[in-house]
Amino acid sequence: MIIVPEKEIAGLVTRADAYDAIEQVFASMSKGAAYNFPVIREAIGHADALYGFKSGFDRDGLALGLKSGGYWPGNEKKGLTNHQSTVFLFDADTGKCRAIVGGNLLTALRTAAASSVSINHLARKDAKILGMIGAGHQSAFQLRAAVEQRDFEKIIGWNYHPEMLPRLAEVAEELGLPFEAVSLEQMGANADVIISITSAFAPSLMDAHVTPGTHIACMGTDTKGKQEVEATLLARATVFTDEVAQSVTIGEAQHAIADGLIKQSNINEIGAVINGTHAGRSSDDEITLFDGTGVGLQDLAVASSIVDLAIEKGVAVEVDF
Ligand code: NAD
């Protein structure tokens, strides 16, 4: 069995590797060759923690396994990340444990790769202004991955806690792009692509803010009750997602579905666009919205790439297990 410790991940996997793994697994999901098992997530009644498993099997990539982890709010005081996760991969032919891979950086990379895949396949080719809603831990990863998909000339940002915006400004500077803090009205009027990555339970971006032709990646809503954009926006947009079952239950679409504004059949798989069975954006005026709920198969796909790279570069720890 192979162990790839968390500290090795940054030196192994590139954003391009993560992008390729995520694009491949979304395509496999849409072909029916890969599927996620039901998610388990529990408040464990200790340390205020939420703990659970995301798991699945990709017959194309032969990735079988699970990501185990959750949220420990008291960790920061102990010098640890609040979100903790570990990926376990199993040999699809024998069931033997194949690898244990640190899952913290991996989660950020695979989540950023998902919105990046959506931008590549759905945003207008001439997109120039990237809008960011959210300035937390994930936002920096989202921003770095997104700018690789189009010739963006400027980053604009809004955050519920404005004091966190310097994080976006610093990443924009690192990327050599100008950054401006804006209102949500300005964001909607000017951004060609908007990424929303917050932990909000009420919408920030409203339907009236958004202008035709925008691509929106809603990446924060991954739990029942969370919401980042007004539900009527989903009725105006063409909606895409990683997995329809998650989109309607724990994703951004849960609210539009509950309010009867859209039907499950209105939600399209991003994998279908990748496979060419859905045309994707049909005009420069269309609003496209990607509901990135985060599936276990994303974790397994990137973890598998990491294991291959760790073996190749000789940093995999081998254990007789
Ligand atoms: P974080 O705690 O570092 O940042 C939270 C962000 O949400 C900040 O920008 C904060 O200002 C904003 N926020 C908090 N309360 C808000 C409110 N009431 N209204 C609007 N904004 C508010 O979190 P993070 O690690 O950056 O993660 C952000 C979200 O992304 C979380 O909800 C997390 O569960 C989700 N997430 C999703 C996936 C996925 O695959 N879809 C993967 C990882 C994380």
Structure, briefly:
The chain is of the alpha/beta class and 321 residues long.
Question: Can you tell me about this structure?
Answer:
With 321 residues, the protein is of the alpha/beta class. Helix content is 34%, strand content 26%. It has helices spanning 6-12, 15-31, 104-122, 137-146, 166-174, 184-190, 231-236, 244-249, 253-258, 270-275, 296-312; strands spanning 2-4, 34-36, 40-43, 50-58, 63-71, 83-90, 97-102, 129-133, 154-158, 179-181, 193-196, 201-205, 215-218, 227-229, 238-241, 267-269, 288-291, 317-318. Strands 1, 2, 3, 4, 5, 6, 7 and 18 form an eight-stranded mixed sheet that branches. Strand 9, helix 5 (166-174) and strand 10 form a beta-alpha-beta unit. Helix 2 (15-31) packs across helix 3 (104-122). The protein is globular and about 60 Å long. The relative contact order is 0.19. Nicotinamide-adenine-dinucleotide (NAD) binds at residues 107, 111, 134-139, 159-161, 164, 197-200, 204, 219-220, 222, 292-294.
- Please tell me the overall pLDDT: 97
- As a percent range, the share of helical residues equals 25-40%
- Using the alpha-carbon principal axes, give the shape: globular
State the major sheet.
8 strands, mixed
- Helix-strand pattern, N to C? EHHEEEEEEHEHEHEHEEEEHEHHEHEHE
Give Rg in angstroms. 19 Å
| Alpha-beta content class | alpha/beta
The low-confidence runs, each spanning 5 or more residues with pLDDT under 50, are none
Could you name the key traits of this structure?
single chain, 321 residues, alpha/beta, eight-stranded parallel β-sheet, 11 helices, 18 strands, 34% helix, globular, binds nicotinamide-adenine-dinucleotide
